Amino acid sequence: MAYIKLNLTNYEHNVKILAEKAGGIEKIAVVLKDNAYGHGLRQIAKKASELGVKIGIVRHFDEALLIERYFDEIIILADYPKEQNLKFIYAINDINFIHKFPKNTKVHLKINTGMNRNGISPDEIQIALKALQNQGLKCLGVFTHHSSGGAVGSEYFVQNQAFKKAKEIILTYSKKYGFSNLKFHSHNSDALLRSQNFNESFARVGITTYGYSDISEAFGKFDLKPVLSLWAKKISQRELEVGDKVGYGCKFIAKEKMNASIYDVGYADGLFRFNGIGEFYLNKNQVLGIMSMDNTCIKSTENELCIISNANEIARYFNTISYEVLTKLNSNLAKIII
Ligand SMILES: *Cc1c(COP(=O)(O)O)cnc(C)c1O
Asked: For residue 79, how far is its CA from the centre of ligand 1 (angstroms)?
């Protein structure tokens, strides 16, 4: 089997950079959705907890249950309670779904400040607060999400302004509806990195903790280090003669004598499938021919080969982002902590 090595020293290094930017480790909420971006939910949650992080963020109730012991609070972005849990806090993404949450559920109200993904419109704030009160929910916070946190341009400021306005309205009416000590949060990784004088309750950081950022270089260079590397073992080795073909469809034909090995990794492990056309490298080693489901022919003789050391290498080739390369990795891949 291919397997993942987790460099938790790098994770610590990244979290420290973010904590410094945010104003302390207590201002960091780590985003652990989708198997901690492919890194392993439990492994990353445990390490974050050891570093003093108190808030974890996931998508679903079941993920929250798995990491309950590691955090004081777990924010669940898109689910409903299956049972009561005092640590769990649910995002309210739509005013029409408030009735689905049982009485006494802890919630954070999401505001749509321009991304038009989830959240209530700023015009609905009063109605929403009233609905939360009527439903008997405990509203502990209010948040929004940036569409362009790491991009040069006005959108970040437009959304900040919209959130500030929403905050003012909420603070005007929150007492009336029985809510106080509200937490406010809007910054993801790149928004935090580009922010100046960050002063929210906490930042919700995902990709940067794992060592990546798509922030514009205009905001400086950040010394983030990839946490994950993917490794595979050699299954077989052969010497190719001139004219030998490799793999399905014979897309690779050797132009010179070379050693090639088959490694036990393929698209079933979550790699993007190389179609055998042109040249493609995995961590600087050339892939020969079409990648199979569980086998990849690589110009190497190493017994164990690093397949991914930097997700951006693959992301660039397939015209996508590090997030997708990482979250596509099969959650069954074994994790080894180094
Ligand atoms: C995924 C997510 C984040 C984390 O974003 P990064 O860019 O990985 O830091 C933060 N907030 C919400 C609501 C998210 O869905």
From this structure: 16
- CB–CB of 95/127 below 8 Å? yes
- pTM of the full predicted structure? 0.97
* Residues 57/60/66/71 CA torsion (nearest 10 deg): 30
| Residues belonging to the active site | 33, 248
As a whole number, the mean pLDDT across the chain is 98
pLDDT tens-place string over residues 120-134: 999 999 999 999 999
DSSP state string for 233-268 = EEEEEEEEPTT-EESGGG-EE-SS-EEEEEES--GG
156: part of which helix (H) or strand (E)? helix 155-173
Q: Whose CA is nearest to atom 3 of ligand 1?
A: 188
Give the model's pLDDT for residue 160. 97
- Verify whether ligand 1 is closer than 6 Å to residue 206 (CB atom): yes
- Give the confidence band of 75 by pLDDT, cuts at 50, 70, 90: very high
For residue 1, the model assigns a pLDDT of 84
CA–CA distance, 321 with 338 (Å, rounded to integer): 25
How far apart, in whole angstroms, are the C-alpha atoms of residue 81 and residue 255? 60
What pLDDT is attached to residue 273? 98
Question: Which residues is 205 bridged to in the sheet?
Answer: 30
**Closest ligand 1 atom, residue 207 Cα:** 8
- Is residue 53 a contact partner of residue 19, using CB atoms and an 8 Å limit? no
What pLDDT band is residue 28 in, cutting at 50, 70 and 90? very high
- Cβ 253 vs Cβ 245: under 8 Å: yes
Token digits for 217?
A: 């270089």
Read off the pLDDT band of 233 (50, 70, 90).
very high
Q: Best mutation site among 188, 192, 224 for ligand 1, i.e. most ligand atoms within 8 A of its Cβ?
A: 188
The single-letter DSSP state of residue 287 is: B
Rounded Cα distance between 153 and 149, Å, is: 10
